[in-house]
Design goal:
The chain is an alpha+beta fold. It has helices spanning 8-22, 48-56, 62-70, 78-81, 117-175, 180-189, 227-240, 290-359, 365-393, 405-422, 441-458, 493-498, 516-526, and strands at 27-34, 37-44, 74-75, 92-98, 102-108, 199-208, 211-219, 244-246, 263-271, 274-283, 401-403, 426-431, 437-439, 468-476, 479-486, 530-536, 540-548. It has 13 helices and 17 strands. A 5-stranded antiparallel beta sheet has the order 2-1-5-4-3, with helices on both faces.
């Protein structure tokens, strides 16, 4: 019986068996077309070995070729007898084509045993049926192959989707991070989702003293990992700027990160066309697959851009912190003159009290004690003034906490008040009771001093008895508001539109850096606040700060 889904081989064997039942013969063979040649698929002949060897040499029986090319049954003729034959001792032969699929061959040794027309008719009918059976078998085979190919393609596609989804998920996690080193660490710890390896390493950032800012690594056996060799390989990957894959590491003249590593993969981390880092994977396998190389290369490109943006942001934050501190120290320099005058008053009182105490020490001890108490009080005033100045000049911390805005304003007024009085500026304050706000007190104190300093400079154009600065705090809805108002020279719309630009100043050359209001705006926004300026020429300026209540 034929199998349910017969192959070409199954059909050929069945056709040959039926042919031998229909027509007597000494040899029978069925040839099918393969790679443009007639190739024996099944045979019953004493010439089996000769048949196979001559077919291997490329020899074809002429009667077979003639039947296949003409599309009609062919018998052995005189011309065929004169050629080299496979079935050399068979004097009668019949070849019946199976259309474009192949040829059925039958042969007899006897001279008088010729094949009859009835034999040809029977075998021609058989070959026609064989043709349809073979075509159906080929269609089934093609369908089966197509199903297998489709199943394999679906498997590969689903695997690719899983990997791409993994990259998207990882990038979503990385985008929530704000620290460059955390981005690299989480990337390294998730590389196992895209490849198999023995160690990973990431070298990235700018070079300082011959070393990159960031070098992270992980390994199944950390004690076996040569970190310096890994660094050198990372530098090679960064210098190349393209994905590099190495096999047979032990035979290559490259730095060897571990004696267990047979293959190495270096994937660049790119940002704006510049290589800013390198992902490294080492494996004990002979090589990394094409899929692994493609996935890691894609991941390197995505991570590189995000990492570099965060790295630049960190550098920018450090530069801003330095700029803010520079601005603060410039303000400290301006305060120095006023503070010196403030120090002189309690210092003079202290000196007088101590001198008087020395003179009356023996004769009037009660008077001595009173004078020493005055000296102690003056010393406390000196310490408070110095403490305020030191607190203001120190590097600001990044932490914000619930703070009473009025106390910040009052400390700023205490610090700069004497300087304003020396320049004959009248300062009035109206500070309402307010709920706390979440701010960095030291930074907002710097803001208030910057605003008071600007107001002081603005009123210098007025006569001494008309120089006025007003400071007030009040609440409005869920906001705490601070306003610093002066009656100075004011600003026109053009100047007002540029007043927060870095290095823009309306002061004479050498009188200002143009950083005051730029730094002020930066500090206010860092504390989740907002600053607005209103001004009219010759009428003055109002600076308004807004902060939300602590929730």
């Amino acid at each position: 019986m034929m199998p349910q889904n017969p192959t070409s081989q199954d059909i050929a064997e069945r056709v040959l068996w039926v042919a031998r039942q229909l027509v007597w013969c000494d040899s029978a063979a069925l040839f099918l077309v393969s790679s443009g040649r007639l190739t024996p698929v099944v045979m019953r002949t004493p010439h089996r070995s000769e048949l196979l060897s001559m077919i291997d040499l490329g020899h074809q029986e002429s009667v077979l070729v003639r039947a296949f090319e003409s599309g009609r049954a062919a018998t052995l003729n005189q011309e065929d007898r004169g050629r080299t034959r496979i079935f050399y001792d068979e004097n009668c032969a019949l070849a019946v084509p199976i259309q474009d699929c192949g040829v059925l061959y039958l042969g007899r040794r006897g001279e008088s045993d010729q094949f009859t027309e009835q034999d040809q008719t029977l075998l021609t009918g058989l070959c026609q049926q064989a043709y349809f059976a073979l075509k159906w078998s080929q269609a089934c085979l093609s369908q089966e192959i197509r199903k297998k190919n489709d199943a394999e393609a679906l498997r590969v596609f689903e695997e690719l989707i899983d990997h791409v989804s993994g990259i998207v998920e990882l990038m979503s996690q990385l985008l929530e991070l704000r620290d460059p080193e955390s981005v690299l660490r989480q990337t390294g710890e998730n590389l196992h989702r895209f490849a198999r390896f023995r160690f990973w390493a990431i070298l990235a950032g700018e070079q300082k003293d011959g070393r990159r800012n960031y070098f992270l690594h992980g390994s199944e056996r950390p004690e076996k990992l040569d970190l310096e060799a890994a660094r050198q390989l990372g530098e090679r990957g960064i210098g190349s700027g393209r994905t590099l894959s190495f096999m047979n590491m032990q035979r290559l003249s490259l730095p060897q990160p571990s004696e267990e590593i047979q293959s190495l993969l270096l994937c660049p981390m790119m940002a704006d066309g510049v290589c800013v880092g390198c992902l490294m994977l080492g494996s004990s396998r002979l090589y990394f697959s094409r899929r692994e190389r493609e996935l890691l290369s894609t991941l390197g490109l995505l991570v590189g851009s995000h990492f570099w943006n965060l790295h630049l942001h960190e550098s920018l934050k450090q530069s801003q912190a330095q700029l803010i501190q520079s601005s603060k120290m410039a303000a400290v320099g301006q305060l120095a003159a006023g503070v010196a005058h403030e120090l002189n008053t309690p210092l003079g009182a202290m000196n007088l009290a101590v001198e008087g105490a020395l003179r009356s020490f023996e004769k009037r001890p009660e008077r001595t004690a009173e004078r020493l108490r005055r000296a102690l009080k003056a010393g406390g005033q000196l310490a408070e003034i110095v403490s305020k100045l030191l607190h203001y000049s120190q590097q600001s911390s990044a932490e914000a906490e619930p703070t009473n805005l009025n106390s910040v304003v009052q400390e700023a007024l205490d610090l700069i008040g004497h300087q304003l009085r020396l320049q004959q500026v009248e300062v009035t304050s109206q500070l309402q009771e307010l709920p706390p706000v979440l701010i960095n007190a030291n930074e907002i104190q710097q803001v208030v001093i910057n605003l008071l300093t600007n107001a002081r400079d603005a009123v210098q154009s007025r006569p001494p008895d008309q120089r006025e600065v007003e400071v007030k705090t009040f609440g409005s809805g869920d906001l705490v508001i601070l306003e610093v108002k002066d009656n100075g020279c004011g600003m026109d719309e053009k100047t007002l539109s540029r007043i927060f630009e870095p290095f823009y100043t309306t002061k004479d050359v050498g009188s200002g850096t143009g950083l005051g209001l730029s730094v002020t705006k930066e500090l206010v926004e860092q504390n989740q606040g907002r600053i607005q300026l209103r001004s009219e020429p010759d009428k003055g300026t109002v600076a308004r700060l807004e902060f939300s209540f602590c929730s």
